[in-house]
Structure formats: C-alpha cells, structure tokens
C-alpha cells in the first residue's frame, strides 16, 4: 500500500470466551494489504442480514447484555445460554469479524486489479468481515457497480438477490412447478415475487399481517395467505391446489411451521387422488428451511405427511454448486441490471458502526422483524 492508503481502520469483532461470555467490540485493526488479485475497499454501505447475526451474536440475547466502553468505542458482553455456548465452542478465543455483504470504493489494488482502483464495487466477503470501515477482498468477491447506482443501492447485491434467484433455480432443478414462501414480505420475499412474475413461476406467499399481505398484492402477488386470518388453513390449501405447489422455502424454520406446510401440501395431494389411502399420497412434498426466525426446535408429526416427504436445511452454496459457471454469471448479470427494480433493497434505518453496539439498536435488529432492514454506513 502507498503512503496515502490507510493502514488501520475500525472493525467490529465478536469473541467467545471460555466461560461462555460473548464480547463485542469496535476496535482499531490493521488492514490487509491487497495481494495481486485483491482490492482494499472503503466501505460506504453494509446491510445487516439474518445470516450476519450468527457470527455476531452466537445465539446471545441483547436483552441480557452488559453495555460498556465509550460512545466511540462501545463494548458489549453477553452471557450465552449453556446450549449456545456449547454449540459455538469451536470459536472460543477467535475474534470473528461479522458481515458478508457491502459496497464502497476501491482505494488500493493489487497488480492484477488496478482496473478497479477508484471504482465503486459491490462485494460478498467470505474471509473478512464487512462490519468495519475497510475490507480486503479478491476480484472474484466483488463486481463494479454501474455508474448510476449508489453504494446504498448496491450494498446487498449478492446475499438476498442471489438467494432469491437460487430459490427459483432450486424449484426447477428439483422438478417442482410451483412453490410456497414464508415470511414473504421481507426484502428477499419481495424480490422473489418479482422474479416469479418475470419467470412465470407460480408462487404462494405466506405472511403474518394484513399490511404485509397488501404490500405483496400491490407488487402483483396473486396468492397471498395471512396466517393471522381465521381461515388461513383454507387459504393455504386453496392456493396450493390452484398452483400445484409441492415445495416450500421456510424462513421461520422452528416450531410447527415446516410441519404445517407439509400437512397442507399432503391434504391437497391426498384429495386429488380421488380415493382414500391409509398411507397417504405418493406426491413428494419438500420443505427447505433456509432461516430460523423461530429459534425453537422444529416439531414434525410424521404420520400427517403421506408416504413421500422431505425436510432439509437449504443454503445458497448448494444450489450454486449444481449450476454451470455460465448460469451463475447470467444470474449475477441479472442482479446488477436490476438493482433499481427487481432486486431493489429497501432499508428502514441507517446507522453508524458504533450504533451497531447500541442497546436499543441491537434489540431492534436482533428481532429480525419482517419489513425492517438496517444499513450500516461506516462513514458516519
């Protein structure tokens, strides 16, 4: 790095002590000089996604936290529940850097990445966290933003958009013709509504509130089921029968949610048989759990789902690993071309790095409330 390139920057770290205490801090950390195929990015917009909370909080509850340090250098200590401390024992003593996505300006570049110097890029960093002022990434982990896009608009160009596209790809790869999606009013859910409309893929949306249902209908969603309605079960079965949905992507994950989806799909499939069988239908019904908004254990009642059913944990890398490079490149191009439309992210609150460790702010983003999305602006 040259004399004008910063050597240190603020970085949020999350460290689990041997006694089960999780310690969060905003520290001054040395920056990694970019290798030949790497760039150093000054971060200007960083989303907080559900996937970021696992390395950040490790199952800890901000409501039980002790807050200290100063306004500029806050520190937080959370005593983890015994089961969480045991589950994350492998990270004891490691100062993890949370944050996967972000966007900003390239301020230093290696010999093979000079063409990106001074460019604004969007990125997905798998090795170094983005909850900081700077991050060093490879050229494969970033992409130049179109000139008419701000860092804010490009901050979440990979996590949610590529996940939404991969959900649609998985439906087709696994031989289904329609799908169900829960927590469907989220940023990702809104993207999925637009993708399915563009691709002609029937979609059943499940939400929890009337205003969420209206939001999706205003986007053009045809099938929206509100779990708060007294006739929700009938709504869901009617939508499944109309669309032929045999696969669900469940962001709730815990409690009765996956089983409820399986049972609804089985009821529709069994009714379509035209006769009663004590074994249930022969239709394969699948639930892909890709989030855990409900952190309680998943409850299944095996006898209710017919002979053929499947529940699995789903993640973006699995689907990308099944696709040829040219298809992934086409997906990336589609995202970059649609960041103002199909893949637009809507942030409800912009915060500084220090505010990530603020008591009220932590309580708000840790709730993972549908429709609420936080954006970190490290320049504040």
Topology, pairings included?
Layout: E1 8-16, E2 21-30, E3 38-47, H1 50-57, E4 66-69, E5 74-79, H2 82-87, E6 95-96, E7 101-109, E8 120-124, E9 134-138, E10 142-144, H3 151-154, H4 159-173, E11 179-181, H5 187-199, E12 203-207, H6 210-218, E13 223-226, H7 232-243, E14 247-250, H8 257-273, E15 285-289, E16 309-313, H9 316-320, H10 325-337, E17 349-351, H11 359-366, E18 374-376
Parallel strand pairs: 11-12, 11-14, 12-13, 14-15, 15-16, 17-18
Antiparallel strand pairs: 1-2, 1-6, 2-5, 3-7, 3-9, 3-18, 4-5, 7-8, 8-10
Helix pairs in contact: 4-5, 7-8
Which structural traits does this protein have?
6-stranded parallel beta sheet, 11 helices, 29% helix, 380 residues, Quinone Oxidoreductase, Chain A, domain 1, Rossmann fold, single chain, alpha/beta, 7-stranded mixed beta sheet
Structural notes for this entry:
- It is a single chain.
- The chain is of the alpha/beta class.
- The protein has two domains: 8-156 and 345-376, Medium-chain alcohol dehydrogenases, catalytic domain (Quinone Oxidoreductase, Chain A, domain 1, Alpha-Beta Complex); 160-320, Rossmann fold.
- Helices cover 29% and strands 25% of the residues.
- The chain contains eleven helices and 18 strands.
- The chain has helices at residues 50-57, 82-87, 151-154, 159-173, 187-199, 210-218, 232-243, 257-273, 316-320, 325-337, 359-366; strands spanning 8-16, 21-30, 38-47, 66-69, 74-79, 95-96, 101-109, 120-124, 134-138, 142-144, 179-181, 203-207, 223-226, 247-250, 285-289, 309-313, 349-351, 374-376.
- The strands form three sheets. Strands 3, 7, 8, 9, 10, 17 and 18 form a seven-stranded mixed β-sheet that branches.
- Helix 6 links the parallel strand 12 and strand 13 (223-226).
- It is globular.
- The two termini are 24 Å apart.
- The mean pLDDT is 95.
């Amino acid at each position: 790095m040259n004399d004008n390139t910063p050597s240190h920057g603020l970085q949020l770290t999350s460290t689990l002590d041997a006694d089960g205490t999780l310690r969060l801090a905003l520290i001054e950390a040395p920056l990694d000089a970019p290798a030949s195929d790497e760039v150093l990015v000054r971060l200007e917009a960083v989303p907080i996604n559900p996937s970021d909370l696992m390395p950040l909080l490790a199952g800890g509850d901000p409501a039980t936290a002790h807050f200290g340090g100063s306004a500029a250098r806050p520190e937080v200590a959370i005593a983890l529940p015994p089961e969480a401390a045991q589950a994350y024992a492998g990270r004891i003593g490691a100062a993890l850097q949370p944050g996967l996505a972000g966007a900003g300006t390239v301020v230093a570049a290696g010999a093979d990445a000079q063409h990106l110097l001074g460019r604004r890029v969007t990125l997905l960093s798998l090795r170094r966290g983005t909850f900081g002022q700077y991050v060093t990434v490879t050229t494969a982990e970033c992409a130049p933003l179109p000139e008419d896009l701000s860092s804010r608009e490009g901050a979440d160009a990979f996590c949610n958009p590529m996940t939404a596209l991969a959900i649609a790809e998985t439906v087709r790869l696994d031989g289904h013709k329609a799908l169900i999606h829960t927590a469907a009013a989220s940023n990702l859910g809104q993207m999925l509504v637009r993708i399915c409309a563009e691709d002609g893929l029937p979609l059943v949306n499940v939400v929890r509130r009337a205003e969420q249902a209206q939001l999706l209908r205003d986007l053009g969603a045809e099938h929206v089921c509100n779990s708060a309605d007294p006739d929700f079960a009938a709504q869901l079965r009617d939508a499944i029968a109309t669309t032929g949905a045999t696969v669900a992507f469940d962001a709730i994950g815990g409690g009765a949610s996956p089983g409820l989806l399986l049972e609804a799909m089985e009821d529709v499939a069994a009714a379509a048989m035209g006769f009663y069988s004590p074994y249930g239908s022969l239709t394969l019904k699948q639930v892909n759990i890709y989030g855990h908004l409900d952190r309680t254990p998943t409850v299944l009642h095996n006898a209710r789902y017919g002979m053929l059913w499947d529940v699995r944990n789903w993640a973006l890398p699995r689907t990308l690993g099944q696709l040829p490079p040219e298809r992934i490149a086409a997906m990336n191009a589609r995202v970059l071309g649609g960041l103002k439309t199909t893949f637009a992210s809507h942030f409800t609150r912009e915060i500084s790095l220090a505010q990530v460790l603020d008591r009220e702010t932590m309580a708000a983003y840790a709730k993972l409330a549908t429709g609420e999305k936080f954006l970190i602006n490290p320049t504040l």
